[in-house]
Amino acid sequence: MFATIDPLTGGLIWEVEGQKEKEQKEKNKVKYVEIKDVNIQFNPRPSRLSLEEKLKLLEPIGEELINKDELINLLKTKTFPICYDGFEPSGRMHIAQGLLRALNVNRLVDAGCIFIFWVADWFALLNNKMGGDLNKIKNVGRYFIEVWKAAGMKMHNVKFLWASDEINKRPNDYWLRVLDLARKFNVSRIKRCGQIMGRNDDEQDDKMAVAQLFYPCMQCNDIFFLEADICQLGMDQRKVNMLAREYADKASDAYKPIIMSHHMMMGLLEGQVKMSKSDLNSAIFMEDSAEDVKKKIKNAYCPPQVIKDNPVLDYTKEIIFGWRNKLLIQRKPENGGDKEYISYAELEADFISGALHPGDLKPAVTLVLNELIQPVRDHFTKDPEARALLQEIRSYQVTK
Ligand SMILES: N[C@@H](Cc1ccc(O)cc1)C(=O)O
């Protein structure tokens, strides 16, 4: 028998807890796994590149850039421009978030930027992730950081800030502007940001939680709170970044951030416009085995000579030629023999003409993807802390 305090009356409530319930409770307890603070590696280095070289390096990141003149001006005037991206820690990490994110961070770091990762733990809570369990959310956040570290992200210019910590350190700075944002925009404008939380804009009011109105106001405020010069988030987050620029027209103490939105990588199967954690068939995960990757690429949509909406070409362009400057296609002599491509354009031209067949491209892509993921697999096998963390988050059995 045990007692808890009734929050309403303050009286004691007596309950009987059986052995089974006790065991279940013990099982559900979220473990805190000790991990070294990754921010100790933070030791910013300026870039030695010229303005032209920096622009060339950054060009492939932005599917949309608002705008180029402002970016040029920033790179000319600031040694360490501040870029930011935020993420809700939940579920598993796919290669778009793992490999493409790391690649783009490295490009920005090489151009002298400081990259702030906003670990959006409170946002995940607002958005009902991980059953609303903040401890689980935090562990998933720590897992994501471990993945990026192992994937080769250049941590010397990268800082991880936890929303829950930073907001509590400077609550006035944070909340006053959130309130101001809430005063300056109407409900329909905020509702138009639904996509940033993975929601439809046309959700009915009685189906919508008030949290869905809080969230965009908070995310918009993050930009100013972190003093970000560049919002370097995915295309799916562009609406709230545009809101920040609109806000700058309304508030005298706000500036217009530069928006550099990266491409959303396609899902594996036909018609999947974006790789999504909630659609397990659409994604290659950073914890997939070499065999899984092989199977997934083998089954991926990749009709001969068709480049439109072809995910295998998308990965080749964005990831393979991003991380490597060449790709070797190994073929039997009767199929044309081996060929090494040193640019994506050259490979695409051969694919269109039919000189390069999907059956030969797929194994080459599989090989490189597996090479890129292998250090992550090794880290989670060899490092005891990382291994314990992975075991812990696997116990949540999350699919989303
Ligand atoms: N909305 C982002 C997470 C995020 C939260 C707050 C931010 O300031 C930025 C990004 C997502 O869905 O992943």
TrEMBL record:
Q: Where is the signal peptide?
A: none
Where is this protein localized, as stated in its record?
Cytoplasm, Cytosol
Task: Write out the entry's keywords from A to Z.
Answer: Aminoacyl-tRNA synthetase, ATP-binding, Cytoplasm, Ligase, Nucleotide-binding, Protein biosynthesis
Q: Which GO terms describe its molecular function?
A: ATP binding; tyrosine-tRNA ligase activity
InterPro entries listed in its UniProt record: aa-tRNA-synth_Ic, Tyr-tRNA-ligase_arc/euk-type, Tyr-tRNA_synthase
What EC number(s) does this enzyme carry? Answer: 6.1.1.1
A GO BP term here is: tyrosyl-tRNA aminoacylation
GO CC annotations on file: cytosol
Catalysed reactions, semicolon-separated: tRNA(Tyr) + L-tyrosine + ATP = L-tyrosyl-tRNA(Tyr) + AMP + diphosphate + H(+)
Lineage, top-rank taxon, reads Eukaryota
The family annotation for this protein states: Belongs to the class-I aminoacyl-tRNA synthetase family.
What exactly does this protein do?
Catalyzes the attachment of tyrosine to tRNA(Tyr) in a two-step reaction: tyrosine is first activated by ATP to form Tyr-AMP and then transferred to the acceptor end of tRNA(Tyr).
- Name of the protein described by the UniProt record: tyrosine--tRNA ligase
Task: Name its species.
Answer: Paramecium primaurelia
Starting at the broadest rank, the lineage of the source organism is: Eukaryota, Sar, Alveolata, Ciliophora, Intramacronucleata
